[in-house]
Design brief:
15 helices; mainly alpha; DNA polymerase, domain 1; 3-stranded antiparallel sheet; 335 residues; hpI Integrase, Chain A; single chain
Length: 335
């Protein structure tokens, strides 16, 4: 019976055709371009490994050949060169894709249940270490600590501030346009489109307005002949083009090194450490989960709650009642 089922689907829809149908069906969901690009990368990455496993060109692979065995081999190879988070994301993408195929009666069942995946790691915030680290980072960068051949401190400070003051993700920073800054002076807000095309409006204060203005003045100095309308990208590279993902990551890492705080950046955090620092300080200063959720654009209240659980004043209060502190207090009183 299984051989007969396999024969039916080997002559049925091709894998790449099914993937095209998957994205066509998702168009009405209005996924953000970054979400769609991530899905495409995950599908393409595993498909390329299926090519080697099945010894067939990608365009020749039938959907029925994508079995639990071939997927286990492909994901095993994928895991050898990717982090747990990447494997989890790819597993989720393929699970959604094959669930769609089942719903459309393109396959009889979803084989992803038989493909092992890493355990979901605990969502632990990774802020910059050190109470004054954010201030040191901003101060050193503004003072021109960068050793780049063509330093641009106005832009570098703006990027750091967007992470530390507004908590923007990398993709959100790159999507900002000149028209994203709205409102009257003194009442400015940043209009941001985040994950899942969810939009939010983040208030900014006068110091942040000044940072933005200093950067825009530097842009006009660097590129005097380039007209820029409200749809033009806010963050530029040194050629005057929209800054790319890799260039933005490199910029932040360079600021860490030149400011001497690189040893206070949690492993694997990089630019995202700025966002985590923003959220952690919100929690430490008493913001509730709903406020953190609104400012950071989280889809789930549970994600925002993580910051409160990790850094909230309740934990500090609980630790403070440790009876050993009483002994320490007596010792210090004797000094």
């Amino acid at each position: 019976m299984r051989e007969a089922w396999s024969t039916v689907y080997k002559i049925g829809m091709r894998l790449l055709e099914a993937q095209d149908a998957f994205f066509l069906a998702r168009r009405s969901r209005k996924d953000s371009p970054h979400t769609t690009a991530a899905y495409r990368r995950d599908l393409a990455g595993i498909t390329s490994l299926l090519v080697g496993e099945l010894q067939r060109a990608a365009g020749e692979i039938a959907l029925g050949e994508v079995t639990s065995g071939s997927l286990r081999a492909a994901f095993g190879a994928f895991a050898d060169s990717h982090a747990k988070s990447s494997v989890l994301r790819a597993w989720s993408t393929w699970n959604q894709f094959l669930t769609f195929c089942v719903a459309e009666a393109l396959v009889a069942g979803n084989p992803m249940a038989a493909v092992a995946r890493p355990r979901t790691p605990a969502l632990t915030p990774k802020p910059l270490r050190g109470e004054q680290t954010p201030e040191e980072l901003l101060t050193a960068t503004a003072a021109g600590a960068s050793r780049a051949r063509d330093p641009w401190p106005e832009r570098d400070v703006l990027v750091l501030a967007l992470g530390l003051i507004t908590g923007l993700r990398s993709a959100e920073m790159r999507e900002l346009t000149l028209g994203s800054l709205v409102g009257r002076p003194g009442e400015r807000r940043l209009h941001v489109r985040g994950k899942g095309s969810r939009e939010r409006s983040i208030p900014i204060e006068a110091p942040m307005e000044k940072i933005v203005e200093n950067y825009l003045v530097s842009c006009r100095t660097r590129f005097p002949r380039r007209a820029r309308g409200t749809s033009a990208p806010l963050l530029l590279d040194r050629r005057g083009d929209a800054i790319g993902r890799g260039a933005l990551e490199y910029l932040v890492q360079s600021c860490y090194r030149s400011s001497g705080v690189h040893d206070r950046v949690p492993a694997g955090a990089s630019l995202h450490a700025l966002r985590h620092t923003f959220a952690t300080r919100l929690a430490e200063d008493g913001a509730n989960a709903s406020e953190i959720m609104a400012l950071l654009g989280h889809a789930s209240l549970a994600t925002s709650q993580n910051y409160i659980e990790a850094t909230g004043r309740e934990q500090r209060s609980a630790a403070a009642v440790n009876r050993t502190y009483q002994a320490l207090a007596r010792l210090t009183e004797q000094d």
